[in-house]
Structure formats: structure tokens, C-alpha cells
């Protein structure tokens, strides 16, 4: 029998789960509790969750739990208990974003399969390999990966690769978006994204009727055979926030395409688009393309496909589309209790017994009559595919006794199919002592360009200066100054870029650079043999003490904490690793695969480019490695006049310079040394108000 890639469907509610299962999903993913990336979905109560597992496992469908958000120290026990409870009930895997939670689950629930969520921002084979080393048995790739990217990762990865095949595309790399958090206080990394990317903006122009951040939905229905051939293990359908009928339609079509090994017909494509789309679909990321044709919005007056959804609902509500074949073998012998054995195709076999048959008074039971009664499995999840019976002559067994025998056998088979596996539960290991809390801050400075570093600024002796690796590549010597020079690795790159990046790293080391700033787990194998110190950047999303300890054991020398944490949460972190925080600058909102200025056709080469929203706020657009874009916040973070950040046990405080000229960089550093208030408009970020 041909084994196809797994079809993984979304289940934002119990009804969506039934819709997915009945329409051919091999597995479903769902949220239980608050610690999942779709907290706005209905999700599942405790009773519903247990029932969902039984419903799916009875029908041979696997269930994955999404614990794919960042979690605080106070939430880690809850997250661990949620995973442990799910583990006891037989969950098939847990999707994780947070490095501390991943480490904790690996240590405390060593038999529980773990999947690296797309929120981990993995888009290279090195990243997949690192996740595998940390105990993940599957990696969900970033949606921006092309076919060639995916094929290379599949070729080199020791674990399964999962690809988003249909549904919404975020403008920002998943796990790296702070736009919703910084603008509206609702964190996408905490499952509360307000979808600001779906609003109108202007690039170097007022916001009007343009939507430069709103991507069309992804549709890779024409590429399933190629994906299967390259070794993709799982096709994932997005849509936990969508209605059950939508889930039914897309699951049914994709299940059919996989089983029949073909692309979609024109009618099927129309159904997919009718169910939901934003001005059509795109597959450009998969094809390695970028550009304005990838973007679209869903019209406000888009009609609901009532007929399509009504037919889908009527079909899955009957709950007879997904049945379990069963084979019965019955024995009716004189003087012995009758027995019935039920076997499924997955290796489960059960035997139950009933009453001793009596001598027939009028008409004796025949083999044919017994088999016909056994085949009546209506109203259950089973369908009888074969029966066999041995019946002695002259015996009687009532229809009620046969029915009870069949019910008992199916009940026993259900128990066997839904029985949770035995798994170990170990206590959480203690964290090391908080040996790296610092009473005195050291200053670090990051720049977007070497021109921002004046001799006067370097004379202030920052402990470290962070410079983009590509900027260092063009230097023949470093400026004089008593500081440690560190190369900032590109936030996004691909396997094909790594020879160039390694060459640049060798050049940087020859210049006298002593460290690298790593913001992605895939950076670690890239620099493991470079001889450079590794410091963790904000892209690693350090949100709890366990994450700091995890990075310490990975060999990092320090780590920058998430700027979505409050001051009190940073203060209360156990710090087994020297800890850094950004205390000044425009905080990054998004890192995008598409270049916004190229897409707009309104690029300014002589002055900064901006994204403008409906309020007139201007968000600077920085060019990022690979012709990508980093969107910066419209307001500058200013903490110089606040004593709070000096009392958090931080080892390093970073001044992050992006669009500032060199004279401003110098003045800001001086202002921070003196503790002066801001001169203009500013923000305190999320350090006081926090996020949902």
C-alpha cells in the first residue's frame, strides 16, 4: 500500500474537528487552554479535548496539541501540566515555539513527540538539524520557503518536514512579528494577533486604498506530487479561525488530490476559492518569486457560499464518511459460551464471550443468519468488511444475544484503539543559581551602517558594538576603539547563502571581530566552528528563565530578552546567562520576505523609505539581507530617564540605532549616560504595559 504524506487539518472547535475527520484528514491540530497561537478560536474545554482524542483515535486520526506561544516563568508550570495531561490522554504530538518550554517538555515528558512550530522561524537545514538535536521529531517550515529551499531541507534533515499547503499567509516571518503587540498591545507571539497587516497603508505615500501587507492565501494544490517526491512528510492546512464548513471543503478536496495523486480540477479550484480567498490565491513563495501580484484583500461584501457550505455541513454531520473496517469471527458451539473476535486493519484484535447457546426449539441458527446480524454496525464508527462463523447444528442464539455480542466486541475494540500509550513523567529539574544577575550595566550599541559610528561615540567605550555582517564584509580594518566588535548575522537567509556568509565570517574574524549576534536557531550550526563568541539576539524570543538556561547550554555567552516582557518579568527572571535588553531605538515590527519599496514602485534612494498607516504614523523601512524589508516602529523607545531598567539585574543595555545620523547616535548615548529625558516624541514600549 502506498503511504502518502499526512494531511493535517485545523480544528478550532469540536465541530471543525468532526468536519476535518469526516472529510479525510489524517491528523488534526487543536488548541486546549490559553497557551496556543489561536487564542481567538473557540478551542476545546477539558471534557471536549478528551472527547476529541477519543473521537479521532477511534477513527485512526492523529491529534496534535498547539502549545506554540511564548510563555512566562509564571505560565511554565501551567504549560507543563497542560502537556502532561494531554500526554496522559494520548496526544500524538505537541507543537512548541518557546525554547524554554521545549527544553522543559523534553526533560519532563521524554516520550512525548515534539514538533517545532513554524513560530520558531526555521527556514534552513541547519535550523531543522538544530531542532532535531533538541528533541523535535518534526519541523514546520516557514511559509516563505520555496520548493528548492524545501527540497534541500528535506534532503538534509534527519526529522520529518511539514509544509503549510493552503491558507492564510502572514506578511512577517512567523514568530518574528511584533506589530500587533507594539501598536495594539496584542501579541501575535502570545496568540492574540490583531492582524494589522490586513489594514491599508501607503509606502512613501498616505494610506489609501492600498494593502501592501495583505498577502493572498497560499494554495499549493498543484504541487502536491512534487512535495511528496522531495520527501515532505505532512501537508498542513491553515484555518483554526475559520468555520467548520470551510474546513470540510478544503480537507475533502486535498484528501482526494493526495489519494488520487493529481492536481485540482477547475471545479475544485473554484470550490477552494469560493470557500475563502483574498482576491484569489498565490503560490509565489513556493515558486521562489516575490512581488505585488501576491497581495490581495477579501472584499467586505464577499457572499457566503451558502449552497457549498450547506452541502458540506449536511455530509459531515451524518458522521458516516469516515468509518473503521472491522472483521468478525464468531464461534457458536454446543455447551460452550459463544465468542466473537473483532479485528481492525491496524493490528488490534479483541475477543468477547456471550451466553451458552440453547438447543433450538423450532428453527436453528444458521451461519448465514449469524453473519448477517453481525454486519449490522449502523450507528457506530465501524463498517463490517468481512465475517466468518462456525455454528454447530441445532442451536439457538437470540438476536438480542448476537447484538449484545457485537456491541461488546466493538466496545472492546474501541477501548483498544483509543487506549493511551504509557509514557514517563519526570519532575522538572531545578534551574542553576541566578549567578549572572548584574548590579552594574554595560552598554552595547547596534548600528545599521558603519557611518553611524563616530570616533566620539566609540570614545564612550561601549562594551560591544554590533554591526551587520554584510557591512563588515566591505571593510579593510575596524575603527580604533576599546570595544568588542560583533557581527550581526542576517535575520533571514537560506542554505544557498551559507558559503558567502561563512566567507564573510572568516573576513570579520580576520578584522578582529570576536563575536556574533545570533537571532535564529539556524545560526548556531552556521557559526559553531567559527571560533567566535555567540550572543543571543531578540529574534530568539527569550521569554523565561528556562530559555536562558537552554541557550546557556547551547554555548551562548549572553542573550537579549524579548521586548514584549514587562520590567517586572525581566527582573524576576532567573539569570543563569548574562542578560541583555534593548533600552533605546526603533523596535522592529516585522521582517518580510517581500521588499516593500520594490513592490510599491515608489522607492526613495536619497532618503529613508516609510510605511504610513491611516493615522499618518510613519514606520521606517530598512533594507534587510536578501532584498527583504525590516519595518521599524514609528516611535522611538526611550528609557534614559527611567531608573527601572537599571534595577532588573541586566548585564547589558542596548542602544539600537537604525535611521539615526551619527550625531544623533552620539547624543543619545550621552543622554543615556546622563539619564536625560527624551527631547521629542517617544514610547516606553511594552516594558510597563505588557501585552495580552
Description:
- The chain has 692 residues and is an alpha/beta fold.
- The chain has three domains: 6-169 and 215-317, Aldolase class I (TIM Barrel), CATH 3.20.20.70; 324-418, no CATH class; 442-585 and 638-674, Alpha-Beta Barrel (TIM Barrel), CATH 3.20.20.380.
- 29% of the residues lie in helices and 20% in strands.
- It is built from 21 helices and 30 strands.
- The strands form five sheets. Strands 1-2-3-4-5-6-7-10 form an eight-stranded parallel β-barrel, surrounded by seven helices. The protein has an eight-stranded parallel beta barrel with strand order 18-19-20-21-22-23-24-30.
- It is elongated and about 110 Å long.
- The model has no long low-confidence stretch (mean pLDDT 95).
**The CATH architecture of the largest domain:** Alpha-Beta Barrel
Tally of contiguous helical segments? 21
- Gross geometry: elongated
**Unreliable residue runs:** none
CATH superfamily of the largest domain, called what? Answer: Aldolase class I
- CATH top level of the largest domain is Alpha Beta
Number of distinct beta strands: 30
The fraction of residues assigned to DSSP E strands is: 15-25%
- Main-sheet strand order equals 1-2-3-4-5-6-7-10
How many distinct folded domains? Answer: 3
Average pLDDT across residues?
95
Distance between the termini: 48 Å
Oligomer: single chain
CATH overall fold name of the largest domain? TIM Barrel
Share of residues in helices: 25-40%
User: Largest sheet, if any?
Assistant: 8 strands, parallel, barrel
Structural class: alpha/beta
**Rg of Cα set:** 29 Å
Amino acid at each position: 500500500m502506498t503511504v502518502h504524506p499526512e494531511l493535517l487539518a485545523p480544528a478550532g472547535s469540536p465541530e471543525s474537528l468532526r468536519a476535518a475527520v469526516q472529510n479525510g484528514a489524517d491528523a488534526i491540530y487543536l488548541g486546549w487552554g490559553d497557551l496556543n497561537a489561536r487564542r481567538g478560536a473557540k478551542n476545546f474545554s477539558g471534557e471536549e479535548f478528551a472527547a476529541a482524542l477519543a473521537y479521532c483515535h477511534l477513527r485512526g486520526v492523529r491529534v496534535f496539541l498547539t502549545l506554540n506561544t511564548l510563555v512566562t516563568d509564571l505560565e511554565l508550570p501551567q504549560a507543563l501540566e497542560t502537556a502532561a495531561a494531554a500526554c496522559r490522554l494520548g496526544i500524538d504530538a505537541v507543537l512548541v515555539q518557546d525554547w524554554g518550554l521545549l527544553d522543559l517538555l523534553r526533560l519532563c515528558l521524554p516520550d512525548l513527540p515534539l514538533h517545532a512550530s513554524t513560530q520558531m522561524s526555521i527556514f534552513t537545514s541547519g535550523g531543522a538539524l538544530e531542532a532535531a538535536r533538541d528533541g523535535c521529531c518534526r519541523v514546520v517550515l516557514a511559509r516563505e520557503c520555496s520548493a528548492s529551499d524545501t527540497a534541500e531541507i528535506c534532503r538534509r534533515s534527519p526529522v520529518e518536514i511539514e509544509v503549510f499547503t493552503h491558507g492564510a499567509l502572514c506578511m512577517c516571518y512567523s514568530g518574528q512579528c511584533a506589530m500587533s503587540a507594539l501598536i495594539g498591545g496584542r501579541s501575535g507571539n502570545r496568540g492574540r494577533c490583531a492582524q494589522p497587516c490586513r489594514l491599508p497603508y501607503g509606502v512613501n505615500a498616505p494610506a489609501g486604498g492600498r494593502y501592501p501587507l495583505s498577502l493572498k492565501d497560499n494554495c499549493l494544490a498543484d504541487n502536491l506530487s512534487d512535495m511528496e517526491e522531495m520527501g515532505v512528510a505532512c501537508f498542513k492546512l491553515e484555518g483554526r479561525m475559520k468555520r467548520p464548513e470551510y474546513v470540510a471543503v478544503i480537507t475533502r478536496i486535498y484528501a482526494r488530490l493526495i489519494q488520487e495523486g493529481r492536481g485540482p480540477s477547475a471545479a475544485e479550484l473554484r470550490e477552494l476559492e469560493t470557500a475563502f480567498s483574498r482576491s484569489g490565491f498565490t503560490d509565489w513563495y513556493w515558486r521562489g518569486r516575490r512581488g505585488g501580484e501576491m497581495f490581495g484583500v477579501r472584499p467586505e461584501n464577499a457572499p457566503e457560499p451558502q449552497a457549498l457550505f450547506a452541502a458540506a455541513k449536511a455530509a459531515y454531520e451524518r458522521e458516516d464518511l469516515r468509518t473503521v473496517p472491522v472483521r468478525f469471527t464468531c464461534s457458536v458451539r454446543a455447551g460452550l459460551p459463544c465468542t466473537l473476535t473483532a479485528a481492525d486493519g491496524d493490528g488490534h484484535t479483541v475477543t468477547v464471550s456471550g451466553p451458552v447457546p440453547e438447543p433450538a426449539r423450532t428453527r436453528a441458527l444458521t451461519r448465514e443468519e449469524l453473519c448477517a446480524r453481525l454486519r449490522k454496525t449502523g450507528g457506530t464508527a465501524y463498517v463490517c468488511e468481512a465475517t466468518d462463523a462456525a455454528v454447530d447444528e441445532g442451536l439457538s442464539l437470540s438476536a438480542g444475544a448476537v447484538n449484545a455480542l457485537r456491541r461488546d466486541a466493538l466496545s472492546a475494540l474501541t477501548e483498544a484503539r483509543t487506549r493511551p500509550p504509557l509514557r514517563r513523567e519526570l519532575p522538572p529539574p531545578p534551574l542553576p543559581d541566578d549567578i549572572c544577575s548584574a548590579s552594574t550595566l554595560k552598554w552595547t550599541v547596534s548600528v545599521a551602517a558603519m557611518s553611524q559610528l563616530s570616533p566620539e561615540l566609540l570614545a564612550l567605550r561601549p562594551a560591544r558594538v554590533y554591526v551587520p555582517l554584510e557591512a563588515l564584509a566591505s571593510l579593510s580594518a575596524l575603527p580604533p576603539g576599546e570595544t568588542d566588535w560583533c557581527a550581526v548575522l542576517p535575520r533571514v537567509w537560506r542554505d544557498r547563502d551559507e558559503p558567502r556568509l561563512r566567507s564573510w565570517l572568516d573576513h570579520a574574524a580576520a578584522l578582529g571581530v570576536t563575536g556574533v549576534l545570533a537571532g535564529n536557531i539556524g545560526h548556531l550550526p552556521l557559526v559553531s566552528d567559527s571560533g567566535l563568541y555567540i550572543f543571543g539576539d531578540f529574534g530568539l524570543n527569550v521569554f523565561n528563565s528556562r530559555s536562558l538556561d537552554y541557550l546557556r547550554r547551547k554555548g551562548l555567552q549572553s542573550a537579549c530578552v524579548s521586548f514584549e516582557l514587562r520590567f517586572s518579568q525581566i527582573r524576576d527572571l532567573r539569570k543563569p546567562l548574562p542578560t541583555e535588553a534593548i533600552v533605546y531605538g526603533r523596535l522592529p515590527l516585522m521582517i518580510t520576505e517581500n521588499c516593500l519599496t520594490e513592490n510599491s514602485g515608489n522607492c526613495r534612494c536619497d532618503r529613508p523609505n516609510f510605511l504610513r498607516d491611516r493615522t499618518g504614523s510613519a514606520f521606517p523601512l530598512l533594507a534587510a539581507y536578501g532584498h527583504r524589508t525590516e519595518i521599524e516602529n514609528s516611535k522611538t523607545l526611550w528609557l534614559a530617564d527611567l531608573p527601572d531598567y537599571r534595577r532588573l539585574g541586566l548585564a547589558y543595555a542596548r542602544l539600537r540605532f537604525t535611521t539615526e545620523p551619527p550625531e544623533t547616535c552620539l547624543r543619545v548615548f550621552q543622554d543615556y549616560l546622563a539619564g536625560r529625558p527624551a527631547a521629542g516624541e517617544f514610547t516606553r514600549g511594552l516594558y510597563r504595559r505588557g501585552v495580552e
